[in-house]
Amino acid sequence: MAFYYNRITLVGRLTKEPEHRLVGDSSQKTQFTLAVNRSFKTKAGEVEADFIPVVVWGKLAKFCGSYLKKGLPVLVEGRVSVRSYDKDSEKRWVTEVIATGCQVLARLEDPAVIELVSDCEVVTPDVVAAPKKK
Questions:
Q1: What is the pLDDT of residues 69-80, one digit of tens each?
Q2: Alpha-carbon dihedral sign for residues 53, 59, 65, 66
């Protein structure tokens, strides 16, 4: 019997505004990049970060596209996806996280957060299904 497990949990900040669009007639897709600080410092004492592309589909994409803003700290759960495509007769590889859950890690009472999300569309909790409990 073989066991396979592809699950990732990331905590970081959005590097820019998420890109939300409709794909086809009804599918929704949101993409953003998450800056995740490394747990160690360089010899110079600086903290480095990894910049990880995240893709979100469906109802969660609608939520992320309308609520997430540059600079907000978020927790993203999902799986790692590696795919390839050909461009100009050259094979290119893309590694990204396909998100299945997303949670904002900031308090909405925080003045800095209020400023970040002040122009957001209001999304009711029933728009996004709660994560399944194990």
A1: 999 999 999 999
A2: negative
